[in-house]
Amino acid sequence: MWSMLGELALAAPWLLALLFGVLALIVLVSLPLSLRGSEASERPEIIRALADFWRFWRR
């Protein structure tokens, strides 16, 4: 996988930057969408669940 990303970075660095930018945007947008309309008492649990979800994908 890393060699493919290295070749992509050499061939089209703007495409790689766009890919990582879209992934970062997805992570940042998921939090407000998840918290919209929730009760204040539920918010810490939702934030913990999102943190666990994104930590799972980093492995």
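(the above was protein one; protein two follows)
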Amino acid sequence: MSGGLSFATRLSGVLAVMLLLGCGLAAGLNYLKFERMLLEQQARVLEILAGELGSTVENSLALGVRLAGVPGAQALLERSRAAEPLIGGLTIADADGVVLFDTDRQNLGTSLPQQRFEALARQEAWRFRIGADYGIGAPIVNGFGQPEGAVLLRYDRSAVDERLAAALLAMVQATLLALAIAVPLGALALHLVTRRTRRWFAAVEEAMQPGAPPAPLAAGLQAAIGEADGVLRDAEGRLEEIAAEVPEELPEGPQTETLERAMT
């Protein structure tokens, strides 16, 4: 077809755009799914570590030692942080939120925000988030079942972001490879499938041109157009005759109904 892109080219472009949008949507949904899965996996691992630290401190409390005087607590936190790179910081605080031990020693003696201890009364591990910092709390319970404090583990999502970036890069590479194969093959298939359609469109366009040669398709098309034009002219003339016969105000009665039926 003249005067622009061919039918097959435009159809191929539409299908390519739809395929690209579909691949992008699938990649985005998979990215969000992997993000939730990796964050949950990381939180569960760190929750186990925080619980083990809480259990170690509770064993010292069972010997009659006060939480502030647990021997080796500071060294325990520092060793745990050095052994696990996912951990950003560790804190042991009493039930009032006063920091007793911390891997960042400048925080010793400070008071933590109470929202980090909202779940301490439930005596089970909890998670919290303040800004970009993620955290896990593990309760420390004495031998009488009373909460003495908690182990607070802080971490960030940098490790998750690295794995997400690698997964996203792999998905983009797979998408580009699929598009590089599917788009040319799809365009070739459409070109072959629409061959007869393109020929029909070209013949119709040629038949509709002024002074078209007397081809069978042109003659049939022109005859159909002339017949349709004659029907429309007859209908228009009939409507004009009916409109001329209708008075401005119709009297009520059988004649009005007869005239209305004639008009319909």
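Reviewer note on protein two: Residues 7-162 form a domain with the Beta-Lactamase fold (CATH 3.30.450.20).
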